Amino acid sequence: MDLHIAASIVPLLGWAVHGGILTRRLACARRDPLTGLHTRAGWTARAEHLIRRHPNAAVLLVDLDHFKTLNDTHGHAAGDAALVATADRLRAWCGHNGTAGRLGGDEFVAVIRDLGTADLDALTAALHRPLPFDGTSLPLAASVGVCPVAELPVPLLTDALAAADAAMYAAKGRTRRGSHTTR
């Protein structure tokens, strides 16, 4: 091989390796290290894309009920297990119909392509299924707020999140009476 060609290839290989490392770091920064779900930044890009392309899309906000009590009673490892289980259940429910993320703490978010094909009762049931942990059964519960994007005057993610947040807090007020999902 010509020395001149080799001298040209070495910097290119260095840049390729550097680019790969940066790409991997960026991908890691867009994933929550505990749950593996998208962080707010990673989820937002996907959610905006789905909302633009799917007029029947819906945004969901999920907040674990009594999470502080669970943490205080059973310890932080149990709290982490509850967060991971919630993420897994939400990811499974979304499937190929949407994408889920973790906003932080015990708050999760999802966007689905078509609310009409989504089984919200199945999501609620999954989020309320007890979690086996360290020889005991941890009670899990969550409040879910839903915003069908078609109901917004302009289909903007910020407005959908605000509406889902209001619906989620309305659901929290009703959880004591047995209703956990609201639009």
From TrEMBL:
Protein name per Swiss-Prot or TrEMBL: GGDEF domain-containing protein
PANTHER family: DIGUANYLATE CYCLASE DGCT-RELATED, GGDEF DOMAIN-CONTAINING PROTEIN
Native source species: Streptomyces dubilierae
Keywords linked to the UniProt accession: Nucleotidyltransferase, Transferase
Coiled coil: none
Record SMART domains: GGDEF (SM00267)
Top EC category: transferase
Enzyme Commission identifier(s): 2.7.7.65
Domain of life: Bacteria
Residue ranges of every copy of the GGDEF domain listed in the record: 55-183
Molecular functions per Gene Ontology: diguanylate cyclase activity
